[in-house]
Specification:
2 helices; three-stranded antiparallel β-sheet; binds zinc ion; globular; alpha+beta; 3 strands; 10% strand
Length: 79
């Protein structure tokens, strides 16, 4: 009986359903100090971050362009 459920899960995951879209969506992050929002689609060209760069992939020494806060001051936006 468990086998039937397993087949359903495998089938669903092989069809690239909703979580495929979720996985490809890049999250925005907000600076908890000044409220500036990092949009991965825009990047931070002035800070040397190319458009399309996910927040997680930015350099650890990157800082908020508005207030200079460190990466760990940023919080993920649920949108
Ligand atoms: Zn800031």
């Amino acid at each position: 009986m468990l086998h039937g459920l397993y087949c359903i899960i495998v089938k669903a995951s092989s069809e690239h359903t909703w979580w495929d879209l979720v996985g490809s969506k890049m999250d925005k992050y907000r600076c908890s100090v000044c409220g500036w929002i990092y949009d991965p689609e825009l990047g931070d060209p002035d800070g040397g971050v190319a458009p399309g760069t996910p927040f997680e992939n930015m350099p650890d020494d990157w800082q908020c362009p508005m207030c200079g806060a460190a990466k760990n001051e940023f919080q993920q936006l649920d949108d």
